[in-house]
Amino acid sequence: MTTIAYIANEFPSSLEPYVMDEITQLRQRGVQVVCCSGKRVSPNELSLAERAFWKETCYFQPLSDDELTRAAGRLGCDRRRFWQLLRPVLWVRGVSPVRRARALGHTLMGAALAEQLAPFRVEHVHAHHGYFASWMALVAARLLGISFSFTLHGSDLLQRADLLSAKLSACQFCITVSEYNRRYILSNYPSTLPEKVMVQRLGVDCVLPWPTTTPVTAATGRRFGLLCVGRLHRVKDHSFLLQACAVLRDEGLDFFCWIVGEGPERPALEKQIVALQLQEHVYLVGHLPRTDLAGYYRYADLVVMTSKSEGIPVVLMEAMAHEKLVLAPAITGIPELIEHQRTGFLYQPGSLPDFVSAVRWIQANHASLAGIERAAAASIAASYNRQRNLRNFADEFLARIAQPGADHAHPVLQQIRLSV
After folding, report:
1. Which residues have a Cβ under 8 Å from the Cβ of 96 and sit 6 or more positions away?
2. Is the torsion defined by CA of 205, 211, 217, 218 positive or negative?
3. How far from the centroid of its chain's Cα atoms is residue 95's Cα?
4. d(CA 79, CA 84)
5. DSSP string spanning 44-59?
6. 63 DSSP 8-state letter
């Protein structure tokens, strides 16, 4: 039986159901999967399915004194290998001292991961996202003399590409979610072999039942409804959305806007709502289980996104599968998902007038846009079917880890030398 380790920064997470989906698909193929998480996760807001994963997951933050001692011992037993691991951490250009110190800590966590995985006789380590857990995966794989791969989405490639050159050099393969990302990798990291980088689409269920419950605001009157779903984080740029809502209100549009999600920007957004006097128009709904989200899709007229960076957002796929109109910035992989004025609408990134104009036009012509809604659902069924894409993922993943790797059998990080 093939045994692999699968690690994410935080696992399980209701915001990233595709990680559990991929693990489940691999297990259905007979693969033994050891679940790992860089950070400890609280089970309080997890679903029953997520709690089942939580119970079996190995966590690495914080580490006990004993775990730290054994991790340091594993790193110190081969000084040459330890030095090869430290080279990109110490010498890569453009890294702040704080982030460099964190990378050193993540190297130690990677050694702890190797200690944890050694008894399982793991043959391959995969990290979902290119954040610190992917460096842990690289370190553990090299210390164990096995292969390593990772998945890149959006911000982990475009905004927080920590030690990415070293990771791309060392990995057996890299998965990414869009053709845009693949082109970006090959253009900005030209030493990366093209055959290493594969595009694997995410997906959603294409037959989505409507709920019987009604969101509270929907019952207050038939105003034009906007819906935005996403973590309250700066990269999602909800502040831009609130500015747009203020303009729409001043222009006389009768509307409401639900913002579903939770995160560190909530206090700032609450203050902005008050400052712009949007209390009767904008509602911060908070975090919702995915099963409750369908009710908000149903009663929204337009699903909007204002992010500064994305991969290909699953929330847009879900909205389109629900035959909902979508409006999103023409950035990164989003134009691969949305064909402007055929399956949805795109606006010029960062342009408040373009966003507001698009919302006004869609509201004025909403009754005649059913064809776009149907085309959106058809495009999701054709290219973003969750079960089909999961099967494709497992097929490609297992085929690639079965291929002999020339570099991962050696304990020394030969490939990393190319990146510094």
Report:
1. none
2. positive
3. 23
4. 9
5. TT--HHHHHHHHH-EE
6. P
With tokens 């209100």, the residue in question is: 249
Average pLDDT over residues 220-241: 92
Which two tokens mark 334? 């989003």
Can you tell me the distance from the alpha carbon of 327 to that of 112, in angstroms, rounded to the nearest whole number? 44
Least confident of 18-22, 132-136, 409-413: 409-413
Record the tokens describing residue 381, joined without a space. 């069924």
Res. 117: pLDDT tops 60 = yes
Identify the H or E element spanning 240: helix 238-250
Residue 9 sits at the vertex; the CA angle it makes with 131 and 294, to the nearest 5 degrees, is 105
Mind listing the domains of the chain with CATH numbers? 3-202+386-419 (3.40.50.2000), 216-383 (3.40.50.2000)
- Among left, alpha and beta (phi > 0; psi -120 to 50; other), residue 252 is left
Q: Which residue has the tokens 């639900």?
A: 258
Over residues 311-329, the mean pLDDT reads 95
Q: Specify the range with the lowest mean pLDDT, choosing from 61-65, 335-339, 372-376, 411-415.
A: 411-415
Crossing angle between the packed helical segments 17-28 and 48-56, to the nearest 10 degrees: 70
In terms of Cα–Cα distance, which of 316, 356, 289, 126 is closest to 204? Answer: 316
CA distance linking residue 70 with residue 323, whole number of Å: 54
Structure tokens that stand for 191 in this block: 């030493």
- Asked if residue 412 lies in contact with residue 83, where contact means CB atoms within 8 angstroms, the answer is no
Query: Model-level pTM?
Result: 0.88
**161 against 359, higher pLDDT:** 359
Distance of CA 317 to the CA centre of its chain: 14
Strand, coil or helix: 42: coil
Structural contact between residues 220 and 238, judged by C-beta atoms closer than 8 angstroms = no
Q: How far is CA 257 from the centre of its chain?
A: 24
State the helix-helix crossing angle for 65-76 and 79-91, rounded to 10 degrees: 100
Count of helix runs (H) and strand runs (E) in the chain: 17, 13
- Which carries the bigger pLDDT value, residue 101 or residue 79? 101
Between the CA of residue 206 and those of 289, 319, 378, 382, 388, what are the distances in Å?
Answer: 19, 11, 9, 9, 11
Read off the amino acid at residue 210: W
Count Cβ atoms below 10 Å from residue 312 Cβ, excluding itself.
26
Q: Which residues pair with 6 in a beta bridge?
A: 35, 126
The side-by-side arrangement of strands in the sheet containing 345-347 is 282-286, 255-260, 224-229, 302-304, 325-329, 345-347
Q: Which of 210-214, 270-274, 311-315 has the highest mean pLDDT?
A: 270-274
Q: State the amino acid at position 168 in one-letter form.
A: L
